[in-house]
Design goal:
about 675 residues, mainly beta, Maltoporin, Chain A
Length: about 675
Amino acid sequence: MTGSTKQPLLPISLLLLVLGLAGQPIMAADPQTGAAAIDTDMLDMSLEDLLDVQVTSVSKRPQSLSDAAAAVFVISNEDLRRSGVTNIPDALRMVPGIDVARIDANKWAVTSRGFNGRFANKLLVLMDGRTIYSPTFSGVYWDSQDVIMEDVERIEVIRGPGATLWGANAVNGVINIITRHAADTQGGLAVLGAGTEERGFSTARYGTRLGEGTYGRVYAKTLKRDALVNSNGEDAGDDWKALRAGFRLDSQTTDRDNLTVQGEIHRDNINQTLQLTRLQPPYTTLVDDRAHVSAGHLIVRWDHTISATSNWNLQAYYDRFDRDEELLHEQRDTFDLDLTHHTTFENGHDLVWGLGYRYTRDDFGNTSTIYVDPDSRRDQLFNAFLQDEITLVPEKLRLTLGSKFEYNDYTGFEVQPSARLAWTIDSTNKLWGSVSRAVRTPSRAEHDFRISTLVTPPLSSVNPFPLPVEAFAVGNTEMDSETLTAYEIGYRTAPSRNLTLDLAVFYNDYDDLRIFSSQTPILANPPTHLVLPALFTNGVQGRTYGAELAMAWQAAKGMRFDLAYSYTESDIDWIRSLDISQNTAAPRHKLSLRSSFDVRADLDLDIWFRYVGETEVYNHTLSSDPIKIDDYPSLDLRLAWRPVKNLELSLVGQNLLDNRHSEYIQELFTLPTEVQRGVYGRLEWKF
């Protein structure tokens, strides 16, 4: 990509110092130092034990990671702390099969197994069971999904369909962000940080015991991030500020009942430079815009144990979202109710079933770029699911059958079945396979929007007419769901207590994928230009396939290496120029290598190397041809010191291998930017 400049990372002497520290013997804790580590038990656990970490996203019930018949990866709280990341998208870079690319200072493209983009629409993301996927475009506004990283218990990432349990739009994967129980966040926490790109951030949190079996916490967080630069190294005008505050209450009301109530409000001021269409030369205009986002939610969850073999939980949440920017003005209210029941039987059946209902109301304000008709809509979603895990051979062979049944206001009734088989070869080797069907239902944009995407000059190479031609993406009330049939096979092994391997191979077969169907140009009224509508519709098939490897090696006490590698191929049938709003290819190769060292009881060193292969993106405002994004390596370093108990000082360097590089170009509306090298310092005090 043009504009990227690569410079030496560090002086040779500093590199030698880093390597020298990494090569030193790992020292045991010295009881005379008085310094206490902040929960570094993960480096002391055997990796065999880590495979027994409980996950819930695969089956909507607790099960060990090693038993899950799916391509699942868990990012722990310790992984987050030692990586030095300050946001969820950057944390997802450590997961094989997940493609993360930064668009500008406040936007990311995140997907699983292909089809990436700012408006990527085949990945379901949840936070404490609350869906943060937007029905507006079937994707996620990552710029408004911040979280206190210290309060994240774990992030469970499923690559591949999760539709049987989670429903439509859990097509290529599910990301479930789970925050910590209030009992695990007692006392005070204060975090302060600042740097070259992370210009300033702060967190304040206090947790306390409110009564017998009842715990609570309150928190607040602020951030200010610097703008990225364009290809000429100039400020891209995309800096942003955010403020959020919230609470969580966990109470064991009886021996069999647990109640959780949590809520949050937040406000973001997001600067951006938009490239919008116009009907006069030069037919585009740059707008310095500020998006104002205000939102809040309230979640109530009740867990009840019926017996040692049966339990149920009921969750309800209300979510309010308000986004005001030059492109679109959106208000959305969502109410969701979900009931899940889990029971086991002596004859080898482990049954999970559930019912759900969601109501959403939206209101849009039209702009010169996007027109919505109708501008307000109320939609309902009804769903039920049933999944049975059947023990065919005790402790050896398990078959899981299930299906999701949904009724939505866009395509009606949808069925999404799956079958999974898990074979425990022996205590250290496990094999699994699955066949699943998933659907992505049309978004509000594909159904009801009219989006001005491009104006071509008159008498040009692409427009022979004497008038400019304005191209529109036009919603289609007859659009059907995209469908996926996915085939997966996986293998997990722990050949020793210090080494684990997790391999997944997949083949995805898509049908009824979205394309734009160009219509006949018509003369505008008044006759100042021609209008070229392109209808959202279903039209083509496609395939993606690949392999993903996760490996962890506990080389010595206090020394660990985590490797993640992905290979992905895309074979989509459509003509590329027919869809200017989603990209299909993923980088063929992606690699992540994290190294964690307990240099001393009070000193940590973490090194994170990444490589992302080249890919192509499509932005018809910039070019009628695919735009190549060069491959790039990246390196993050973190050094943390605990001079006294409960105080940690850390220095983090990010993207250190070059001065700046390009990772992605949004499909529409924004100009290319480049990610810069950054350094920040952080202070954490627990009291």
